């Protein structure tokens, strides 16, 4: 038994040493990556905007290093005419940071327009993961046309667990409910909703217990006789639907 225990300790020690070697190898990798995995920006209606993005390298060189930037089409949903990306970014000598600028334009913008970006290898320096810039048309200060409708719920046995918010494209809460928790056993609920034509929103429905709306539970958001969001079933803690309102 003692011999078996000694063999086990030897194997365990060898495994730990291998893991340490792996960690040391990983930490010594020379790579360049974006400062963030995601970015956000907005464009005024009919206008343009810029977004500065920083990249970092794990090492410092005595000479300038120039990295190619390419658009990751697998992550991009934005119209090609709504963005302009430089072909390279420079990390200056004796620094580990470089900055480049993306130009944005209000051209065929949907609610959420994604621009995927990735860096290319350079002289043994490996690129990190791609990053995504999400941009949108900034809402105007005035609502030129209001569109009205209702949000309707059919509950399961635990209505007290359900609440909702409607957010604008900048994350501001436009309307929410209920003001007090629904009572368990409540069968249904309906509330008026008025939003602005042409603007983008998200409906988020929450379940405090984390199992969604069990059948026959469901919800629907309808504006001017058009259904913009619906759902039900086991959606966990929350479910979100983004949409743009059209009269």
Describe the structure.
By secondary structure, the protein is mainly beta. The chain folds into two domains: 32-137, hypothetical protein (bacova_03559) (Immunoglobulin-like), CATH 2.60.40; 146-244, Lipoxygenase-1, CATH 2.60.60. The chain is built from one helix and 18 strands. The strands form four sheets. Strands 5-7-3-1-9 form a five-stranded mixed beta sheet, with no helix packed on it. Strands 2-10-8-4-6 form a five-stranded mixed beta sheet, with no helix packed on it. A four-stranded antiparallel beta sheet has the order 14-11-16-17, with no helix packed on it. It is elongated. The termini are far apart. The model is unreliable at 1-27 (pLDDT under 50).
Q: What is this structure's SSE topology?
A:
Elements: H1 2-27, E1 31-34, E2 38-43, E3 48-57, E4 65-71, E5 83-84, E6 88-91, E7 97-105, E8 113-119, E9 126-127, E10 131-137, E11 146-154, E12 162-168, E13 173-177, E14 188-196, E15 200-207, E16 213-223, E17 226-233, E18 238-244
Parallel strand pairs: 1-9, 2-10
Antiparallel strand pairs: 1-3, 3-7, 4-6, 4-8, 5-7, 8-10, 11-14, 11-16, 12-13, 12-15, 15-18, 16-17
């Amino acid at each position: 038994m003692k011999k078996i225990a000694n063999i086990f300790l030897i194997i365990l020690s060898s495994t730990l040493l291998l893991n340490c070697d792996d960690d040391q190898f990983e930490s010594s990798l020379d790579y360049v990556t974006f400062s963030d995995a995601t970015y956000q920006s907005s464009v005024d209606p009919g206008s343009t905007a810029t977004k500065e993005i920083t990249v970092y390298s794990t090492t410092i060189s005595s000479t300038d290093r120039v990295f190619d930037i390419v658009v990751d089409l697998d992550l991009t949903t934005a119209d090609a005419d709504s963005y302009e990306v430089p072909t390279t970014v420079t990390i200056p000598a004796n620094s580990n940071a470089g900055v480049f600028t993306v130009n944005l334009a209000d051209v065929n913008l949907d609610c959420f327009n994604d621009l995927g970006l990735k860096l290319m290898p350079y002289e043994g320096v490996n690129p990190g993961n791609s990053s995504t810039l999400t941009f949108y048309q900034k809402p105007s200060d005035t609502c030129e046309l209001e569109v009205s409708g209702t949000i309707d719920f059919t509950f399961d046995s635990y209505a007290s667990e359900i609440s909702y918010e409607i957010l604008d494209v900048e994350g501001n809460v436009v309307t929410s409910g209920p003001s007090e928790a629904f009572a368990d056993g409540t069968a249904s609920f309906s509330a008026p909703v008025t939003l602005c034509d042409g603007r983008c929103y998200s409906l988020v429905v929450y379940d405090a217990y984390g199992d969604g709306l069990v059948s026959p539970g469901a919800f629907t958001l309808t504006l001017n006789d058009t259904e913009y969001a619906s759902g039900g079933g086991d959606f966990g803690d929350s479910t979100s639907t983004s949409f743009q309102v059209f009269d």
